[in-house]
Amino acid sequence: MRRSLPPVASKVSDTLIARGHHGVILTQPQPTHTAAEAAQALGVEIGAITKSLVFLLDDDPVLLLVSGAHTVHLDRTGERLEGTLTRAPAAMVREVTGQPIGGVAPVGHPINLPTFIDNALGRHPELWAAGGHPNTVFRTTFGELVRITAGLAIDVD
Length: 157
What we know:
The chain is of the alpha/beta class. It has 5 helices and 8 strands.
């Protein structure tokens, strides 16, 4: 079954396994383009969808793992992170994650990105995140997400 995964998703699976996760990545019949579409396809609440978003904190790329129910308010979240937060250009997202926009996973990147995790994800017993490719996902939990990413939980609004 792993052979059917796109190579970038196989790398995410390998990273998950190396970090103590089961590494199972599911392939959806079609890519989902929004958190709402992903939630509908998986039959879960939108808040249980983990969006992987790359920003610049001042001049350095960071990864925010955000509840599908939230929008990142740059000023407030940047203030919490003690810097200026701006969206990373698409080319930079691809460069620092090695993954296409719409499929960026929380792990499996060529560089270690400082990672911040939306506390709102902790309200859901089960979370779903992209698996490195636009039509792949994997299941996790808030505690496991914090552990496998070495992320810092913060409030995002």
